[in-house]
Amino acid sequence: xxxxxxxxxxxxxxxxxxxxxxxxxxxxxxxxxxxxxxxxxxxxxxxxxxxxxxxxxxxxxxxxxxxxxxxxxxxxxxxxxxxxxxxxxxxxxxxxxxxxxxxxxxxxxxxxxxxxxxxxxxxxxxxxxxxxxxxxxxxxxxxxxxxxxxxxxxxxxxxxxxxxxxxxxxxxxxxxxxxxxxxxxxxxxxxxxxxxxxxxxxxxxxxxxxxxxxxxxxxxxxxxxxxxxxxxxxxxxxxxxxxxxxxxxxxxxxxxxxxxxxxxxxxxxxxxxxxxxxxxxxxxxxxxxxxxxxxxxxxxxxxxxxxxxxxxxxxxxxxxxxxxxxxxxxxxxxxxxxxxxxxxxxxxxxxxxxxxxxxxxxxxxxxxxxxxxxxxxxxxxxxxxxxxxxxxxxxxxxxxxxxxxxxxxxxxxxxxxxxxxxxxxxxxxxxxxxxxxxxxxxxxxxxxxxxxxxxxxxxxxxxxxxxxxxxxxxxxxxxxxxxxxxxxxxxxxxxxxxxxxxxxxxxxxxxxxxxxxxxxxxxxxxxxxxxxxxxxxxxxxxxxxxxxxxxxxxxxxxxxxxxxxxxxxxxxxxxxxxxxxxxxxxxxxxxxxxxxxxxxxxxxxxxxxxxxxxxxxxxxxxxxxxxxxxxxxxxxxxxxxxxxxxxxxxxxxxxxxxxxxxxxxxxxxxxxxxxxxxxxxxxxxxxxxxxxxxxxxxxxxxxxxxxxxxxxxxxxxxxxxxxxxxxxxxxxxxxxxxxxxxxxxxxxxxxxxxxxxxxxxxxxxxxxxxxxxxxxxxxxxxxxxxxxxxxxxxxxxxxxxxxxxxxxxxxxxxxxxxxxxxxxxxxxxxxxxxxxxxxxxx
Length: 842
What we know:
mainly beta, Immunoglobulin-like, Porin, 18-stranded antiparallel beta sheet, 12-stranded mixed beta sheet
């Protein structure tokens, strides 16, 4: 309080102004107020003349000028967080006094201080943000540390009273009978998931690399097993929270950091106190979003008064923000100084309290706890060491109770011990066991067949109905790790009731090496296909692939496909695939072509066989791959683009190949954050086929005649509407994340998110490829040709609303060009359509 009274006195001096002059002697004092430790200027410091009402404040650089008209003996310099200093005033016309202030601890009791120019918190935060690069651990040449992570999952909010003393619902009654613990609010909570992971984390810059080696892991939960994929997902790689970054990527959302570049645009700050945290004295600053409905944090940040570096942060996002299924997101983090003087997040706790999906329905509580210990700095390893990004130790499952007691940062509380014992009881309840299996089936799409080491599925492709096959039934099987850790066998058998034909596929894959990942595979299949909807076009959109098997199939053909491939990871993000492919084209519609115009061969044919050499190079430097036994799954890429270069060479007279040709295609996929404006997703691609081949071998853009919106398709283009041998594409989507709707009083409660889309295609077909199509086939039937683009690009523009009822998306799409293009497809063009799609998202 003593320092506070001094500051209050100085402020009052400034407000009172100049008093009457008692002498005509004039003295001018100039100087600069600086931090004694750093030499940085201290803005808005108070300079008061002892025994008078004269005074001034320093500018943004700490400089000041004071003119005295009365006699005085000393000058006092004051600033929040610094010790007050006095300097003698000499009896001379001018004098320079450079004040150097030393930081000190000042504890204020429920007092808020506002300096000239606004709340002092803004001055502190401005300097903290300016010094980010000095303390951000990402700026280290390299670092490594030991990590311990613990994740707990509970089902809660099922024991509350209901209106009119009604009985609890069936789910609540079931949960009430299960073993439970008591949460911090005194309510029962059923533990359904507990994991502990101990790992070593390594990182370096230039180039940016990060690697986690999971040494030990233990996972217990409903519907999960102690598998490698879960061990990698529960490690430190997915618990990285660096508030020195401009934003934090949490629950697939970009949340601006209160000490990021947008700190003043997004947040309001208030200096609350100056307190001691350990051996450091820190400013305690409260912050909150400028608008309560913005996707931003609210909480408290503690900044070291000496270095203006992060010491601790407590940040929350409540249910008013636009995050689905989350009642509250809470991040608590402690930062400690390293040997080099940088700051490092040594302890992080994240709590996610989910919103109840329906009134009186139970909710869920998830807790993440992570620590970093034994931090080593600036000892980079060879770049190859950091591949793969996540790696499991050979005996990661083998760890006894003594090991976990040794590596845990603190001993478990009584409730945590009880939770670890109770979760085993819960997962063995018969009904809970069945529920867990249903969840696994919905996520994976495969049903394990007991001890046969076989999985049945994918169930999504089990049935279809179309104009060629009638009722199509399919049975698929694959082996799992119980069968072999080297061999992977999979396949399916399908049958159509109308064409009464069997279709099949058989695939054998052998894992040559796991480090680096190297596989050799062979596949043979025979099935019904349709022009314009191929696996290369559809990609990994399994729902659209299953849907394409329904309805009227135009331009169908049978294909026998034989494929031999070799795939190897060459380095972090680089994957190379080499393949030899031999396939046939057996049309089930009027089709013909002239195969060799350059040799004056006018023979008209309808079917063909091609032999292809394929090279595909994929570069995804930001992608994290999860690897477990025979499975390898991508965890996605969030910052850097993914490039794919594919070259195909057709070889004539090898394995019956009819054509020699070349095809080159390049694709780039990326997304980036545009600050408060939301996130942009885009894909750019292009290619060329400088050869003369039948049109089924040319590029066919993926159309979409369904009522569903498909992200990688042209949603108002019909199937097989255009064909190109030279093409360039751009597909764009920007999701504003509720930027507009969050500001409208009625709509902001709905948590809708506005978005815009655009698709552009430029392409052409050479005259040589147009000339391959005769007017009639060998049976005298009229041959169906194709449409090509002219100099006008194909353009679609759209706008839509996402997150309707938290699962639905509605897009309004306008087709701007080729609106009268009936052509040879026989299907009228739709110039405008409303399309829907849906998925669960945060």
